Amino acid sequence: MSGDPARGWVTTSLDGPVLTVLLDRADQLNAQVPATWTTLAEIGAALPDEVRVVVVRGAGRAFSAGLDRSLFAADPGTPGGLGELAGLGAHGAQERIRGYQAGFRWLRRPGIVSVAVVQGHAIGAGAQLALACDLRVCAEEATFALPEATLGLVPDLTGTSTLVQAVGYSRALEMCLTGRRVGAAEAYTAGLANVVVPASALDGAVEQLVAAVLGPDVDASRETAALVRRAAAADEDGQDAAERAAQYRRLHALAEQASSARG
């Protein structure tokens, strides 16, 4: 059964210490809507203490093709659309985006390890969701892209800091400015993918990685993860705030352009 539109087509299943989060909108390549992000945030807020691993997947042939295209409407009357967001004003828009970012940030909270299982497209918000996870297991045909700048926007779902942590400054800058697609082989070489396997072997590779993560003593594992995260961390709160502010400036500019075009 597919996910509930009111919950952004997100479903979950719990198997002992492993929670699986599924984007369940295969007919739309798991395109995301604001309800997707608020539901993700709710899942994180209600996460049971016994969960040690969170696996994030997309149903069908893609992980997620990004933002639902209907939301690109500049019309402020489109619920959840970019035009509506721009109309909230600087404070209102940034607070709304802060809530969306919460759906991504919890995937790196202390006590859990998150794994994105990427097949097909991981574009825009899809790429940022995969990047929000600690680890990424990819099928050979997987592709990543962050095309926001080519659309007049910026990545604002925590993706700038997580991308830099994964691939470094220069490659992250080039990917974000050009919006080009990065295949699985390059993603592995760059550090964006931890494992790349044929699509037929994807489930087995995920099971193997999850078992390995669950292998060590739980307290030792959590202490080690905390140390590694501290060593890698940028000023995540500051970076998220910068994303929100930049996105509002872009939304305001695009709204003005649309208004001028309507005459």
Please describe the structure with a list of short key phrases separated by commas or semicolons:
single chain, alpha/beta, 263 residues, three-stranded mixed sheet, six-stranded mixed sheet
In words, what does this structure look like?
By secondary structure, the chain is α/β, with parallel strands linked by helices. The protein has helices spanning 34-45, 82-86, 89-105, 125-132, 159-167, 169-178, 184-190, 202-214, 218-232, 236-262, and strands at residues 10-15, 18-23, 53-58, 113-118, 121-123, 135-139, 143-145, 182-183, 195-197. The strands form 2 sheets. The protein has a 6-stranded mixed β-sheet with strand order 1-2-3-4-6-9, with helices on both faces. Strand 2 (18-23), helix 1 and strand 3 (53-58) form a beta-alpha-beta unit.
In short:
The chain has 263 residues and is α/β, with parallel strands linked by helices. It contains ten helices and nine strands.
Write the layout of secondary structure elements.
Elements: E1 10-15, E2 18-23, H1 34-45, E3 53-58, H2 82-86, H3 89-105, E4 113-118, E5 121-123, H4 125-132, E6 135-139, E7 143-145, H5 159-167, H6 169-178, E8 182-183, H7 184-190, E9 195-197, H8 202-214, H9 218-232, H10 236-262
Parallel strand pairs: 2-3, 3-4, 4-6, 5-7, 6-9
Antiparallel strand pairs: 1-2, 7-8
